[in-house]
Predict the structure.
Amino acid sequence: MGLSARDIAFITALCGVTTLNVFLLGAVTIALPTIGRDLNFQEGNLYWPINVNSLTFGGLILFCGRLGDIFGGRFMFLVGSLWFAIWSLATAFVPSSNVFIVYMALLGMGSAANTPAAIGLCSSYFPPGANRNKAFSALGVGSPVGFILGLITSGLLTESRATWRSLFYIQAGLAVFFVCLALLVFPKDHSNRRYDKGLDWGGAVLSTTGLGLLTFSLSDSTTAQKGWLAPQVLSLFLVSIVFLVAFIFFEHWRESKNMSVLMPLSIWRQPGAKLGPLVGVVFFGWFSFDTLSYFFTLYFQQVQLLNSLQTSLRFIPMAIAGALPSIAAGYYVARIPAQILMLIGLLVSLASSVIFALINPDLSFWSMAFFMMITIAGVDIVYSIGNQQITVSLDEDSQSLAGSIFSVSTRLATALGLAVTSEIADSVSKAYNNKHPELDAQSPEVLMVGFRAAGWTCFASTLLSMVIVIVGLRDLGIIGKKTRSSEDAEKSDDDNSNSGQSDLKSLK
């Protein structure tokens, strides 16, 4: 049975808002220099807007995911999306740099609320089958395409009379439209799908603090003058690790007492779910994807010396190609084993990092860069398939939590990817500059040496993701079907149950 008009409207509302969440990051990435000049940012504070947005999103994502399971995905999606719309409009009127930073943090809170809820709603609304596959594919398209559309739109509007503020007008208007659409087509939440053990406040404090500090320290390491040696970066990173370790032990203790937990550790051991390897594949895949996207922007602007508009236009092929992997996942996920689909997508994405590492800046865009831009999107198939697998494997009362786990892994992957590759690129460029002191430190020749090193780092990350697929997901099979390991586990449970019943009868 095909999608009805209401189904299409439902998917449009979900994808529209989640795409806007990522659109924001792409748009601000391009517009930051202009925003900095207009609002009189100090150079050292220029990347704070993106950092604080990542902080609130990464810190609150697990907490909001569990709130979605308690109060219902519909409620969290609408509240988060409306919050996002309100602060998008407010951001268009900001008078100063400090206010802009605060509003970007508030926007991250809205994204943290509606993103995991969208995954849970998609799973609860569509029963397993072709329509659910299509819906998850559409959600998968939103992440890369939203970011790229943000880059393109920002490049077109920032240098025009409309200015960067028009980006937030557009964002606010679209968010309101999708909220109204959701009010019309979203069904009421089913109470029997709720998580009824209550909220784990201790876990919420530990996870929010730990994830927030970790995200911020990773992001700040790319802009701090001393990098990882900056006192605030290293100290906050170590403190975040302490909080996260405490969170794990605290959750284990509460689960052993059958109390409410923010994230039950048992889901990582659930037979057939493959949650650990799936998160690993998504993490290292997004480590490469978002890092390469960032360095592509630097390459066009700092090596080929293009302006924002020219750079944005070169991302159009990437936006178009970004939809193809998720569409393919929706069509083939019920026909081809997930491991094969993931390997194909990652192999295509692997080509992008190789092309970037070997690219000749003197060649035309169509000779090498075009193929670099269209192949990077292959990794997107991993996100779509991973979301489908995790939702069919976890209980109905934890679907929003499932969505938050993948969301936080992609955001942490981005933060770590930029931190690691920026450090590598800077070190390699400085070493090259020391050997060639006649060159300026910011010359295209010096920068390109570091960019190539970043490309090879992303190559290694994608390769590691492929190894995890081969080793950790070798018996995943077709999504929705029971794997051999899960069948063996169920058979073992049945045998144990029958054995227990027999022992009870013999005692009687």
Notes: The chain is about 75% helix and 0% strand.
